[in-house]
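Subject: YeeE/YedE family protein structure
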Amino acid sequence: MKPLRYLASLACGLLFGIGLALAGMTRPQKVLGFLDVAGPWDPSLLFVLGGAVAVSAVAFRYILRRHSPLLAESFDLPTTKPIDRNLIAGATIFGIGWGLSGYCPGPAIALLAAPDTEALYFLPAMLAGWWLFAFVAKRSR
């Protein structure tokens, strides 16, 4: 069963990466044009967002009726609901990084298929940020 899960994960990741590339989310100029509402705003990524929300709204309704996923024993859904200081801090840092660079982690990883100079600087910085978070979180426990 595990090889099938790995294959399904690979297929989903490839599909996700192709979708990001087709939507233009791997091009920082496109993303920054969407985020810059005070400048020459590019609203085209609203269609990407709308499509993702529509597909998710329909799919989750059917998927969560099942007793378990097809390739796992149980669903792995978030259990915490409160908006706390860590969530706000993480969202703020994520938003600042995305706004400054135009890269989000998913599209940045998708760029490994066709990296550019900016991505080659961003990806190690992103990995360093993940490591720093894990280090700080481990020490604060």
